[in-house]
Amino acid sequence: MGRLDNKVAVITGGASGMGRAIGLRFVREGAAVVLADLNERGGAEVVRECAAAGGRAVFQRTDVTLESDLRDAVARAVGEFGRLDIMVNNAGVGGALGRLEEIPLEEWERTQAVLLRSVFLGMKHAIPELRRCGGGSIISTASIAGISGDFGPHPYSAAKAGVINLTRSAAAELACDRIRVNAIAPGGIKTPMFVGGGGFGQDDATIEANMARLQPIARAGRPEDIAAMALFLASDESEWITGTVMVVDGGALVAHKNAISAASTGRGYAGPSFERR
Length: 277
Ligand SMILES: NC(=O)c1ccc[n+]([C@@H]2O[C@H](COP(=O)([O-])OP(=O)(O)OC[C@H]3O[C@@H](n4cnc5c(N)ncnc54)[C@H](O)[C@@H]3O)[C@@H](O)[C@H]2O)c1
Hints:
Layout: E1 8-12, H1 17-28, E2 32-37, H2 40-52, E3 56-61, H3 67-81, E4 86-89, E5 95-96, H4 105-132, E6 136-141, H5 154-174, E7 179-186, H6 192-195, H7 204-212, H8 223-234, E8 245-248, E9 269-270, H9 273-276
Parallel strand pairs: 1-2, 1-4, 2-3, 4-6, 6-7, 7-8
Antiparallel strand pairs: 5-9
This protein binds nicotinamide-adenine-dinucleotide.
């Protein structure tokens, strides 16, 4: 028996990093998943990995800034697997970097579209299908940058704070439909997005050693750490939990050693990780 038997999930950003790990964990626990991402090659690879694990997964090319694409991703879940129980709003980018006074307005707007508007759109289109199934779970990937002021670029931090409070207000509205809404706030997790800029080193051992120094629990955060929390929030074991933000950060928030300050994150715009390699 799996912890997600007979459940169907859409996972945005499912082609890489945490989304990939969530997809693999979910199918191993019996769910069928739609991996919704811009990254077609990565998505096809994760579909293969899910199949090799004995799971059911399909890829749906999705730009989470587009309402029609999110509508289609939800429709794909229903068309392919007959229902929707779990919506994971996880796709993300670093977005606009640098000092506030230097950020172009259009890059601010682009960052909000990928990180916050997308979560609204994911919720909006998932809700009717979740309600039709008698309830469900919406999980959005926020960040400790949405809780504290010194963990990421300004537009990123603002968007993630927005994700956290949208989670709370949505939870209040949707509890009567047995739809639970929660967010996960990861610390530094070793994914292409986080290490892609090269700031933590080039080889695996150096990256691990540098990331181990970011928080009291002295190892790099892993996508699997986030997948474990997503599994709990997706499963019926968390049926009395809604409107929360689950911090998964090795203790970074309570005792961070090397905060990544907004001003020290470089300049320009950090787009999807697969385009930056
Ligand atoms: N890695 C970290 O340390 C960290 C910490 C806190 C929060 N997060 C958040 O976790 C989530 C997952 O990030 P990750 O670290 O696994 O990075 P990742 O780059 O490995 O995965 C993100 C995925 O989102 C996809 N994506 C980007 N823009 C998209 C768009 N417009 N439409 C559809 N897909 C798009 C990318 O192609 C990629 O597959 C993001 O929301 C990120 O902000 C990451």
